[in-house]
Amino acid sequence: MQEISFLIILVLLLYTMIAVVDQISIQCGLYSPLFAATFTGLLLGDLQTGLIIGATLQLMTLGVATYGGATVPDYLSGAIMGTAYAIISGEGAEYGIAVAIPIGLLLTQMDVLGRMSNSFFQHYGDRCAEKGDWKGMEKANLLGLIPWELSRLIPVALGLFFGEAVVTSINALIPAWFMTGLRTAGSILPAMGMAILMRYLPLKKYYPYFIIGFVLLAYGGSSFTVMAAALLGLALAALHFSRGKDKAVATVSGDVAMFDDEEVEIDG
Amino acid sequence: MANGNERKLTKQDINKVYVRNLFALQFGWNYEKMQGLGYSYVIMPALKRLYGDDPEKMKRALKMQSSYFNTTPGTSHLIVGADMALEEEIGIESEEAVSALKTGLMGPLAGVGDTLFIAIYRAIVFSIASYVAMQGNPVGLIVPLLACAAVLWVRYKFTWMGYQSGRKLATGFADSISPITEAASILGLTVVGALIPSVVNYSTNLAFTMGDVTFAVQDMLDKIMPKMLPLGIVMLSYWLLGKKKINSTKLIFILLGLGMILGNLQSMLTAVAGLF
C-alpha cells in the first residue's frame, strides 16, 4: 500500500477549493465527480482508475442536482476520496466506487450544515442593509463562501491524511460476498442517473425518441456509439423544431388546414 | 425619460454585474433568503452607480434587494438585466416594480432554467463525456468545458437581453423558449435511450445445469431482446422514483441491495440447491 504524500494532499485540497466555487457558480465541470476522480487519478499516477470511477459516479448522479436549493449527496468529496483509496489500496475501480457512494451520502449533512451557517452572514447582511452599508453587505456575501469551502475541505483533508488507516479498516471489516455485491451494484447504479433524467425529461410525450436511442445501441452497439445517437437525436430535434416553427407561421397567417392535418402530436 | 434619475449605467457596470452574477450569486446561499444576499451583491455595481451619492436612496435599495430570491443561476441574468434597466429608467421609485419583477419571474425562469440548464444540459453534455471516459479516454472531458464556454456566452447575452428590453422581454422569454426546450428534450431523450445499453453494464452469469445441458440465462434473454436487464433495472428505478416516498438517496440503497442480491445470486442458488 502506498501513502499519499503531503504535497499531493495539498494539491487535492486546492482542487477541492476551486471545485466548490465551480459548484456554486458556473458549474463548468470541475465540481463533477467525473473531473474530480480523473484529476485525483492523474495525480496519484493511475488515470484509468480515476476515469472509470469518475464516469460511473457521474452517470449515476446525472440527474441529481440542487434544484431550488435542495441538498444532494457530496459526490465531489466522495469521488476524490474513493479514487484515492482505490489507488493506494490497489483494489481497483469497483472498490473506489463502492467507498465513494457511502462517503458522498454521509457528507450530505455537511452541506446542510454549511448552508445553515450562512444564515449568520445573512443576518449580518440584513443589519448592514438597515444602515445602508453596502460595503458590509458585499462582505457578508463574500464571507458566505467560507462555510461552503469548509464543509468540503474538512472531510477531504481528514479523509486523505488518514487514508491508509481508513483503507485498512475498510478491508478488515468488509467480507468478500459484500465486495462482490458492491461490484454488481456499481454496474447497475448508473441506472439511477438515467431514471432521474427520464423523470425530468418529458418521457411520456416524447417516448418514441427514447426507444430510437435504445434500439440503436442495444442492437447496433458494435457499430453505433452514443455520439452517433446524439447526432441522430440532434437531427430529430432540428426536424421537430423547424416543423414547430412552420406550424407557428401557418397559425399566424391563418393558413392552418394543411399543416394541422399532418400534425399528429398534440402539444400543450 | 429620466424621471428623477439622471445617472446612467456604463457598459462596464453591466459587465461587472455579469461577472458577479456568474460567480457570486450563491456564495451567501442560506435557508432564509436563499440567493437574496447574493442578488444584492450581484447588482451592487449598478446600485453604486445609481444611488452612490445618496445614502437614503441606497438604504432603500439595499433593503429591497436583499429580500428572498431563488432561481436557476443560468436564467437569473434576464432578471438582473431587466432590474438594472428599470432602476436606471425610473430610479429608486421603481422599487415596487423591481420587487414584483424579481418575485414574479424567479419561479417561471427557474422552471425553464432547471430543465434547460441543468437536466437537459447534463443529460447531453456530461453523459457523453462520461461515456467516453468509461472507455478509459480522458478526451471526453473537453466536452463539458466547451459546452461551458457556450453557456457563459449565452448568459452574457441574457444579461444584455434583459437589460435592453427590460421587463417585457424577460416575461415573454419563458414562452418563446419552449420550442427550444422541446427540441432539446428530444435530443436528451434520444441520448438517454442510447446510454442505457452502453453504460448500465449488468449481465447475469446465472446458469442452470440439467443433465448434460447447461442453460445460460443471459443467452436466452439476449434472444428475446439484447440489454433487457439494464432496461428493466432503469424502468424499475423510473417507476420507483414516481412513488412519493422514494427519492434518489433511498433509490441508491435499493439499488445497492439489488446489487447485493444479483451479484451473489449464483452462489445463493448453489447454496440452496446444496440443501436438498
Give an account of the 3D structure.
- Chain A has 268 residues and is mostly helical.
- Chain A is built from 14 helices and no strands.
- Chain A has helices spanning 6-24, 33-43, 47-60, 75-89, 93-106, 108-131, 134-143, 145-161, 163-173, 176-188, 190-200, 203-220, 226-253, 257-262.
- Residues 254-268 of chain A have low confidence and may be disordered.
- Chain B has 276 residues and is mainly alpha-helical.
- Chain B has 2 domains: 11-188, no CATH class; 202-274, no CATH class.
- Chain B has a two-stranded antiparallel sheet.
- The relative contact order of chain B is 0.08.
- Chains A and B meet through α2, α3, α6, α7 and α10 of A and α1, α2, α3, α5 and α6 of B.
* Rg of chain A (CA only): 24 Å
| Beta-strand content estimate of chain B | under 5%
Count of DSSP H/I helices of chain B: 11
Categorize the overall geometry of chain B.
elongated
The SS-based structural class of chain A is: mainly alpha
Number of helices of chain A: 14
Helix content of chain B: over 70%
**Overall average residue pLDDT of chain A:** 85
- Average pLDDT of chain B works out at 87
What's the shape of chain A? flat
What attributes does this structure have?
heterodimer; A: 268 residues; mainly alpha; 2 domains; 0% strand; B: 276 residues; 2 strands; elongated
Write the layout of secondary structure elements.
The complex is a heterodimer of chains A (268) and B (276).
Chain A: H1 6-24, H2 33-43, H3 47-60, H4 75-89, H5 93-106, H6 108-131, H7 134-143, H8 145-161, H9 163-173, H10 176-188, H11 190-200, H12 203-220, H13 226-253, H14 257-262
Chain B: H1 11-24, H2 36-51, H3 55-65, H4 73-90, H5 95-134, H6 142-176, H7 178-199, E1 207-210, E2 213-216, H8 217-224, H9 228-241, H10 248-263, H11 265-274
Antiparallel strand pairs in B: 1-2
Give a nutshell description of this structure.
The complex is a heterodimer of chains A (268) and B (276). With 268 residues, chain A is an all-alpha fold.
